[in-house]
Amino acid sequence: MSSFFRFRERETSYKQETIAGLTTFLSMAYILIVNPIILSQAGMDKGAVFTATALSAIIGSLLIGLLSNYPIGIAPSMGLNSFFTFSVCIGMGIPWQTALTGVFVSGILFVILSLLKIREKIINVIPKDLKHAIAGGIGFFIAFIGLKNAGLIVGNEATFVAIGDFKSPVTLLAVFCFILTIVLTVRGVKGAIFYGMVISAVAGMLIGLIDKPEKIVGAIPSLEPTFGEVFQNIDQIFTPEMLAVIFTFLFVAFFDTAGALIAIASQAGLMKNNEIPNAGKALLADSSATVVGSVLGTSTTASMIESSSGIAAGGRTGFTSVIISACFAIALFFSPLLGVITAEVTSPALIIVGALMAMEVKHIDWGKLEIAIPAFVTILMMPLTFSVATGIALGFILYPITMLALKRPKEIHPIMYGLCIAFMGYFVYLA
């Protein structure tokens, strides 16, 4: 097993990988609660979506671990489940069964693009400075999510965002968890993020801020209400509205996953010569999970940026993903326990991991404006637009423009020019 996952080469161990897997799972576990809540607003059965969410995470995480040997967790994407419910089903009035068909078709297209290595080629031709900007930008983005979930920053009509209420007990719990995890991290404790979350969850229950679970084991909800519904409306995918939906699923998922993969590979030290080894296999795993997940009854899956918390805990191989998969399998039976993993418990981990990922910006050549401006916009727009894909798109538009302005067109791969035009078209479509 250690030979298969190349433990010695990547300087890791069973214990280190197991702690990393548990850390990532705890950071991702909220998806089992949140995804059913969001998709149920489209009319889907909560219980069925819970089971579909867990099964798609089990299959996707296991595939990416075994095929690519990357420490990544796969689960339904938070951005795309909201798009599925609020834009497609509620906004456009499309039944959830038909919307699932759109997810299924986009997943099939993903698989084809992965097998043809088109997705891998696109990722590998991205300039290295933009790769570092994407990794750093995702760090700022997930730190922003962590600050929001902790209540440390809140919405404000006058200033958009403002400091949170430090009198709130749950915010103080998040602050306690944050400080505790910082102390453990800077002292070099392996698995510091995991231990911080566990200690904070226990503390929250002891002082009454987190409800103690009424029971430990629960029955697995049936998949019957959602299973196979994708095939009921396959003839409706060729309408203009559904083609637009499929394109949007394809676009956002492509670059959300590409961004996460770049960030994670860079953080784990797996990137070689500006390329990601086995990227094609990793992309095939996440696209296959989307196809399977849509059949089971959930929206588009993606590589989760929360995987970076496991990497910060020492995850370096696919064995971390195997542990993540096993945890989701166990969670099917112990769903009542998931309630103790609240946003206040997990948010400090996201802030600290965001800080670790933001260190990638030191590799950007800030001394050259033609690089600094596209990189800065990429980083800045991820948290400000609450979208990894939007930050990437804007950076991909500006980078070729700055190079053309300096009459250095040959330094940019033709694919980057194609993407620049495609992204311009995408923003015109959104307008």
From TrEMBL:
Subcellular location: Cell membrane
InterPro entries noted in UniProt: Azg-like (IPR045018), Azg-like_bact_archaea (IPR026033), NCS2 (IPR006043)
One Pfam short name: Xan_ur_permease
Name listed for the protein in its UniProt record: Guanine permease
Segments passing through the bilayer: 20-42, 48-67, 100-118, 130-154, 166-186, 193-210, 242-264, 313-334, 340-359, 371-400, 412-430
Topology versus the membrane: Multi-pass membrane protein
Keyword Glycoprotein found: no
Keywords: Cell membrane, Membrane, Transmembrane, Transmembrane helix, Transport
Main location: membrane
UniProt similarity note: Belongs to the nucleobase:cation symporter-2 (NCS2) (TC 2.A.40) family. Azg-like subfamily.
